[in-house]
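MODEL INPUT / OUTPUT PAIR
PAIR INDEX: 1
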Amino acid sequence: MDALDAAPGPFRSFEKNDFETDWTKVGEGKFGQVYQVKIKLWREVCALKVFDTTVGTNNHCRKPREDASNIAKVKFKYLVSVYGFCIDVPAIVMEYMSNGSLTTLLNSHNLMWPKKFQIIHEASMGMNFLHSLQPPLLHLNLKPSNILIDDHLHVKISDFGLIHCEEETDKKLFMEHLIARGNLSYIPPEIFTQSCEPPGLSFDAYSFGIVIWEILTQQKPYTGCSMTTVLLNVSHGRRPCVEIMPEQRPRECDQMISIMKQCWDQEQEKRPPFSETVRKTEALSEVLKIPGPIDFPRSSENGHSLEFPSTYKIYSPHFPNLPPEEQCGKDNVLSFLFKKDFRSFQSSVKREHVSTQFSGKKSLLHYTVASGDVKSVEHVLSLGAEVDCVMPKGYTPLIVAVLNRFHDIISLLLEHGANPTQGDDDQWTGVHFAAQNGDDKAVRLLLDRGATANPREKSGWTPLHLACQNGHETVVRLLLTRLSVKAIGEREDVENRTPLHLAATYGHINITKLLLSQGADLNATDSSLSTPLHLSAKAGHNRIVRQLVKDGAVVDSADKRGHTSLHLAALNGHKGICRQLLTNGASPDTRTHQGWTAMHLAVIKRHEATMTDLKTLGVSVNAPGENDWTPLHLACHQSETEMVAKLLAAHADPNVTEKSEQWTPLHVACASLSFPSVLHLISHRADVNATSAAQATPLHIAAQHGHSPIVKALLLNGANRTQRDSSGATPLDVAKRHGKCEIVRLLEN
C-alpha cells in the first residue's frame, strides 16, 4: 500500500519513497542541506532539512528525531511548522518557505522602512511565543538565516529547539558548538565569561538585538573582524556600528535603535523580555505599516524578475553617503548637500559640475533632487542640467522625486520638461512607483502633465494592478476616472491576473466594490483558471467572498487542479467561507482532479471545526477520494485521533474499504500505529477480522509493526489469531518473520 508510515499524534514518520524523486536543493549549511520536495499523497511542497550524519550529535544537539518530535507540537503563525521526520535520510520534514531566509532578502533587496519594521515585529512575535511557553523554549540559534520568508514577505522563525544547554553542560564546549554553526556574532558576552549559569531568556534577546541591527542597516556585523577581535569587542561592550544607519530615516527609527540597544545590553538583567519588545515593535510597525501583504520579484543578476506572480519594487530612495575620497573631490560640491548647507551648495555649483558623473554614475541633478531642496534643484536646472538624465537601472530625477514624495520638486521637474512617461530599465514609470506607494498627489501631478494612466511595465503590470495589490483606495479611485472598462480588466503577463484578482487576493473590500461598480469581470480567470472568488476564499477574506457571491460569481468553477472555492476554503480552514459558499449553492461533494472532496481536504489539513461544519451543511463524511480513500482513512493514516473521533461521531463508516489494497480504516490505523484511533474504531463496531485483498486482517498488520497495545486490543475484541493471509501466514507467523518477539509471546499465549 503506497501510504506514509505515520507515528502516533500529529508528528509523523516518513520514508524516502513518500516523496517525489525530483528534489531541489534550496540551502546548505555546516550541518546539512535543505531540499524542496513534494509529498506524494498530499501533493504538497515541503522542505527537508537533511542532517549531515558525519557531524554526529552531542549534548547541544540531541537526536534530530527527538527534537523534531518536540518542536512539531509548537504551532504559531510566526513559527515554521514541522510535519515529521524522515528516518532513512535522516531529515526533518517541515513547511516550505518560498522566499528563503532573511539573509537572502537582506542581501538581494533594498528594503523600505515599513517592511523593515514589519519584519522586526513579526520576528519578535515568534520569539515572544516561544518564551511564553511553559517552560519557556529557548532558541539559542536566532539569526537571519533562521528567519524564513513566505510568499507575501512575512516571516516565520525556524530551527528553534534544536540546540540545548543544560546546567551540567560544559560552557566552553557549548560556545565552540555555537561558533562552529556560524553564530559568533549572536553570542552574548556572558557566554565568554567563567560564569557557570546556563543560557537563559536574555541569550535570545541579545541575538535579537544583533538581528535588528542587520535588518536596519542591511549589513553583516563585524565584517572583516577575526574571531578574537569579535570576542574582545563583545566582552568589552562594543557592538556593531550604529553610526552607519542612513541619515535620512523616519524618526521612529531612533526608537527602534533604542530597543535594539536594550536587547544587546552588556548586563543580562537589563535586556527586555520579548513580551515588552513585541509591544514596542507593534506600535512602531503600526505607524509605518504597509497596507496588506506584499509580493515582490526576486531579482537576478541582470535585474529581471523571476518566479513571482506579483510585482513589487523594494527600493530605498535615499542615496548613501559618498566615500571619503569623493567627498574631497573637485570643489567638494556634494558634501554641502549631505550637510544640508544648501546656500553654500548653490554658491559653489558651477556649470561643469552639471555634466559630471558622480559615484554610481549618478548626476548632480539626481543628488540634488534626493536632497529635497527645491531651490537647489531649480538652480542646477538653470545651469543646464539634463532633466531626463538616467542613473543605473534607469532612474530619472523625476522617479527619484516620486520615490521620495517630493511633490514640489515633481512639479518643478515637469515644468522644466521632464518626461512623465519615461520608465526605468524595467519600464516602471513614475506613475507605477507613485501608485505602489499610495501617493495619490504624485499620481495626479503626473497624469495632469501627460502621463498615461495604464502604462505596462516589463511584466505587464499597470499602476492599477499595484494600487489594488497594496490597498491604496484613493489612488484606485483616481486611476478609475482616467481608465476605460477594458483597461480595468487588463491582465499582467506572469499569472494573467486582473486588478480585481489582486484586490480579492489581498483582502481590499472597498477596492473590490469599486472595481465591480466599474464593470470589472468577477468571473475572469488567471493562468491557473482561478477566479477572484477562488483567491479570496483561499486567503480567508470573508467579506470579499460575500460581495463576489452577491454580485453573481460562479461558485462551482474549478481551477486547473479541479479546486473549487469550497475546496480552497476547506483546505485552509475557513469554515465561515465554507458555510457561505454552501448556503449559496456550492456543490458539497465535488472532487478535485486528484479525487478529494472538501471534507477530505479539511481532514488532510486537520481542520476539525471546518470538518464538523461541513458535515452539518451536508458534505458527506463517506465520500470516496483517491483510491477510494474516505476522510476516515485519511484521518487514521495521519493518526489524527480527535479527527477520527469526530468523523465516527458524524457516522463515518468504519468498515468501508479503499480500492488498492481493500484496507478498512482499522487496517490503516494499525499500520499508522495509532492506538487511540484503533480504540475509537473498535468502539464504533469496526470489524476486527476484516480482510484485505491479500487476506490480511488488522491483527496481521499490527503484528508486522510490533505494536503490542494494538495487538492486545484486537485480541480482547475477538480478533482471530489463526486467520491466514494469501501467503498462508498467521499473525504469529508474521510477527516471527519480522522479529517482533513481544508480539510472538502475546500470540503464543
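PAIR INDEX: 2
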Amino acid sequence: MRSFSHLKSSITRSRHLLLPFSVLAFFFLLYTVYNSLTSKTASLTYATSSHTLFLSLSTSANASISHDLRSLTLRPHVAGTPGAASTASFVISRLHSEGLRTFSRQYSPLLSFPSHSSLSLHHSNGSLIAPLSLSEPADPNGILVPPYHAYSPSGKTLAPAVYVNLGREEDFQTLDGLSVSVNGCVVLVRKGGGYRGGVVARAAERGAKAVLISGGSDGGVERGTVILGGPGDPLTPGWGAIGSDAERLQVAAEEVRRRFPTIPSMPVAAVTAAEILRTLGGPPMPHKWKEGLVGTAGGVGPGPALVNFTYAEEKKIAEIQDIFSLIRGRGEPDRYIILGNHRDAWTYGAVDPHSGTATLLEIARRFGVMLRSGWRPRRTIILCSWDAEEFGMIGSTEWVEENLDNLHSKAVVYLNVDCAVQGVGFNAATTPQLDKLLIDITKKVKDPDVEGKTVYDTWLSANGGIRIERLARADSDFTGFLHYAGIPSLDMYYGNEFAGYHTALDSFNWMETQGDPLFHRHLAIAEIWGLLAIRLADDVILPFDYQSYASLLEEHVHALRDFVDEELSLESIHAAIKDLHSAASDAFTEGQKLELQHSSGDYATVRIRALNDRLMLAERSFLQEEGLDGRRWFRHLLYSPPEDYESKLSFFTSIADAISRSKRYKGSKERLAICHQIWLVARAIRRVSQVLRGDQLFGG
C-alpha cells in the first residue's frame, strides 16, 4: 500500500509539471510490474498483519472479559424465562456497540420445567420417617430454578431404594452378582456415570420405578436434561420450530415419546442421598462404591425403608432467541466461517456457558476494531449466540435444520466454545482436517499459566504429546453442524472437570477467586479462537489437511480390530483409506501450485474456488442421508455419538452401533449387520476421495 501511495503522488506531481504522456505510461507500467512481482508479499503481509493486529488488541482485554462475565452472571437465566430475555438484550447491545451487523431469530420449541416435587422416607408399613429436602444447599435462598431433570416424565411411587453406584452397566452387573434386583425400586446413584439420560434409561430397562442422582459433597445439585435420541426440539425433528403455528408432531406420537425417559428422575443433594443410604440393608456395599459418598453407608438395599417419590413436569411451548453478528467477506461472501457459543444457563453460568460468551464478545470487540482499521475477511464470518442449549442443543439445532441447504453449500467450518474455562490445561476436539491448523495456531498464543511458553508447549508437555479428541459426543452446539450437516467442526476449552457443573456454585465469584482470577485463560481461548477464524476466513487455500485425516483413519481401523471378530475383513476400509491418502496428497499438491500461481499474479480464481469447495464439501461425504440405523437424525458414519452410551468406540459410529447390537442379540443377522456397516464406511471414505479429486467421475 505504501508503494502505491508514493506512485500516486508522483503521478500527481507529473501532471502538475505537464510531463509527457510517455512518462505517465512508464510509471504505470512500472507499478503494474512491481505489483505483479510483489503480490505474494502483499497477500502474506495482509494475512500476517491481520494476525498481528488481532493479537495486539489484548490491552485491557482481561478487564473487558471480566466486566462482561460479571454482567452476564448477575441473575439466573434459564432458556424460555424472563431472565433469558435480559441476557439476550445484553449480548445484542454489546455486539451493536462494536459496530457489528446483528440479527436475531426466534424459535418456539417444547421446553420442560418442574411443577411440583417431593421426597420422603417411610417405614415398611408406610408410616413417615422423615421428609427429605430437594433444595440445593448452595442455594439457601432459593433464587435458582429448583434442581430438576428437563423432560423427566411426571410420576410417583412408594418403593424401596437400591444404591447402584454410578449407574453404569458394570454397576448393575455387580448387583446381579449380589443377587440384588432393582425391579420395582427407586434407584439411587451418584453423578459421574456418564450422560444422566443414559443412566435413567439403563435403570428403566431393569424395571426401576424412579431414579435419584446424587450431587457432590460441595453442596451443589446438578440440573440437566435427560432427553434421549438426539438434540433439538422433540416436536420438530428435521425442521425448524418457527413460530407458535409451526408444524409439530403430537407429544403422544411414538417418535416423540421415544425421546423421553419412561420413568421419572430427580437430582438430589449429597446430604439427602446420605439419609437414604443410612436406611439401606441388604448385601454390604462394595468398598469402591463408598468413594465420594457423604456419611456412612451399610448395604446396597433394597430397603427396608421406603422412598416416597413424586415429580410433576410442565411441558410448554416457549420462545427462544438465537443472536448473530455478520462480517461479510470481501471476496467470497457466500462462504461462511461460523463461531458459536450458547447463552442460556441452568444457574448463573459463569463457567457454563458465559466463560465462552465473554470470550466471544472479546473476539467481537477485536473484530470491530479491525473492521474500523480497514480489515475485511475474504470469507464471511458469523458470530452466533445460541439459546436453549441446556435442553438439548435446541437453538443451534433449529437453526441448522432450518438452513440446512444453505449450510450444506456454503458453510466452511463451525468453531464452538462452550465452557471456555473450567480449570487448568488446554483441551480440544476436532474433525481431523483441522488438527494441523489448530496446532499451528496454539504455537502463536502465549500460555496463560507458564511464563515464556506457548499454549502448544504446555499442551504438548502435559499429555506427553498432543492429544486431540474426536467429536463423537452430543453435548454442545457442534452437534447439529457435524452430526447432521457434515460441517467440519472444533470444540475447545480449559480444564477437564468442574465440580460446580450446572449448580449454584457456577458463579462469577468462583471464576474470580478460583477458576481464572486474572482471566488469562479466557484471553488464550479468545486468541486461539480468533486466529483460527482469521486463518479460515483469509487463507487463499483453505487450511484443511486431509492427509492427516487419512492417517488417523488408519489408526481407527487398527483400533477397530480389537472390537470385531478376526474373521471379519476390514480390507475394504484399508483399501478406501489408501485411496484417500492418494487423493489427499493430490489435493495438497494442487493447493501448493495454485498458491504459487496466485502469488505470481495468476490468480486462478476459478480453480482456487473449485479446490476450496472440494476441501469444504469432503466432510459431507461421511453423511448417510437416511441417517444411522434406527437413529435417523444422526447421519455422520464416523463421528456421531454411539447408540450405547458406554461404548468404548469414539469413531466409526455405525459400526460401533452394529457391534453393540450384536452383543445383545447374538446371531448371524447381527454379524451380517456389522459387515454391512463396514462396507458403508468404506464407500463413504471413497466418496471423500472422489470429492477431493473433483472431476474424476470414472476413476483413474
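PAIR 2 NOTE: The mean pLDDT is 91.
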